[in-house]
Known about the structure:
Elements: H1 6-17, H2 24-29, H3 31-41, H4 45-58, H5 66-73, H6 77-81, H7 84-92, E1 96-100, E2 112-116, H8 118-125
Antiparallel strand pairs: 1-2
Amino acid sequence: xxxxxxxxxxxxxxxxxxxxxxxxxxxxxxxxxxxxxxxxxxxxxxxxxxxxxxxxxxxxxxxxxxxxxxxxxxxxxxxxxxxxxxxxxxxxxxxxxxxxxxxxxxxxxxxxxxxxxxxxxxxxxxxxxxxxxxxx
Length: 136
């Protein structure tokens, strides 16, 4: 059997994750897809899930903030903030780029917009191996 295209696996994870609340049944249901992505990105399953969501958000008209991730998963933003170390790691590894959103009164991760590294995005779209990314 041929290896699936990473972009196809990302789409499966994105679609299945809608309103999932990160429940154990959902995580079990996408375990094989998350393992494929984790191998490709060399990250944890949860980090692969976040990369998948951000990738789709970046290529659609949806927002790409931690608030957008929380809405997609049907979770309280505080639950997403509990994964802040994962976002820090993905940023350090150069897989995602974070940008601050100017909002009154907001602080921290809830005021950040996430973008997939353009070199990584191109590799996913072109079904190429993981590129060498600048570590932060």
